[in-house]
Specification:
Elements lengths: L2 E8 L11 E8 L2 H13 L4 E3 L13 E6 L9 E4 L2 E5 L4 H10 L2 E2 L11 H7 L2 E2 L2 E2 L4 E7 L5 E5 L17 E7 L2 E2 L2 H18 L18 H7 L6 E2 L2 E3 L7 E3 L5 H19 L10
Parallel strand pairs: 2-4, 3-4
Antiparallel strand pairs: 1-2, 5-6, 6-12, 7-13, 8-9, 10-11, 10-12, 14-15, 15-16
The structure holds uridine-diphosphate-2(N-acetylglucosaminyl) butyric acid.
The site of uridine-diphosphate-2(N-acetylglucosaminyl) butyric acid has 16 residues, from helix 5.
């Protein structure tokens, strides 16, 4: 039907870090209408609602999540199409898939997305970026469920997007978006795709992680700071500061969320004490 779900679903199955306790109600609506009905049902009853896409920028605590965790998938959530040179993708589409679809359609500018592990919904919520480009550089419009439970579409100019944060998509849940790029030759698109992949392959770990842990402070990139503080290779239980990039914590197998959180706190305390820098998490905790 329009929806699937389960009770006490382990979030370690739904996060790229592979950690996290159970979600009380795990729900997978397959249509915008089912999504809206679910959110409105929960809001009317004061049941906490969270939306989780690919769980790639998420650190779920070992105690799990109380309330409803909604995972949009299937139907329009998983659809991607092109019209008049613009690409429309559902919240549940992987950025990598959006990028390859754009390339096949002869539209360039999406290549940086090849290495982003998340889905469109998450990328919109946090204005994900890499290689000097951000999601909202390419957004034309976003369709979302608003705070009053109504599905609306807003153009790019009507949305405030900051570095790794789009405040209004905290309680307005993105359902799909339309993106723009530049018409380009397949060969040039492939070159940029390969360059992005090659850079990522040497500069970021392949082990299970949540991407970058901290936002870049204005002074020094977080990865460089963690590196200079000597944390690369440090472990706490089964969590380890990546040897490849200081701003990644990797799961060496069977890590608990507490292992990761412990490392985060240790690093923050040291950055504060040694450099006077306040490192803010970039992952959602
Ligand atoms: N560096 C070190 N040691 C390290 C890591 C980095 O000295 O262990 C140095 C690098 O040599 C470079 C500088 O720090 O001079 C910046 O590093 P990098 O080029 O890897 O970029 P970044 O600022 O660490 C940002 C994004 C990444 C994105 C990359 C590539 C943030 C917090 N991070 O990383 O995004 O993939 O650029 O474009 O904005 C994410 O959002 O999850 C993420 C990983």
């Amino acid at each position: 039907g329009d929806m699937d779900g389960s009770l006490y679903e382990p979030m370690k199955r739904h996060t790229t870090m592979l950690v996290g306790g159970p979600a009380q109600f795990w729900l997978e609506p397959h249509t915008f209408e089912a999504f809206a009905a679910l959110v409105n049902y929960c809001r009317d009853r004061n049941i906490a609602v969270r939306v989780v896409g690919r769980g790639s920028n998420l650190l779920v605590r070992d105690g799990g999540i109380r309330g409803a965790v909604i995972h949009p998938e299937g139907g329009l959530f998983s659809a991607v199409s092109v019209k008049d040179g613009l690409i429309t993708a559902g919240a549940g589409v992987r950025l990598k898939k959006l990028a390859s679809f754009a390339g096949d359609a002869g539209i360039g500018g999406f290549e940086w997305m090849e290495g982003i592990p998340g889905n469109v919904g998450g990328a919109l919520r946090m204005n994900a970026g890499a290689m000097g480009t951000e999601t909202f550089d390419q957004v034309v419009s976003v369709t979302f469920l608003d705070e009053d439970g109504v599905i609306r579409t807003r153009s790019r100019a009507e949305i405030v997007a900051q570095y790794r944060n789009v405040p209004e998509l905290r309680r307005n849940f993105a359902l799909q978006a339309t993106f723009k790029g530049e018409p380009d030759q397949a060969e040039r698109i492939k070159e940029r795709w390969d360059a992005s992949r090659a850079k990522r392959r040497v500069s970021q770990p392949v082990a299970a992680s949540a991407g970058c842990i901290f936002k870049n402070p204005e002074t020094t990139p977080a990865g460089k700071l963690v590196d200079e503080l000597g944390f690369k290779g440090s472990t706490n239980g089964k969590a380890e500061v990546s040897e490849v990039h200081g701003n990644f914590i990797v799961n060496r197998g069977g890590a608990a969320a507490g292992d990761v959180l412990g490392l985060i706190e240790t690093i923050r305390a040291e950055a504060r004490a040694a450099r006077g820098v306040e490192l803010e998490p970039e992952v959602k905790i």
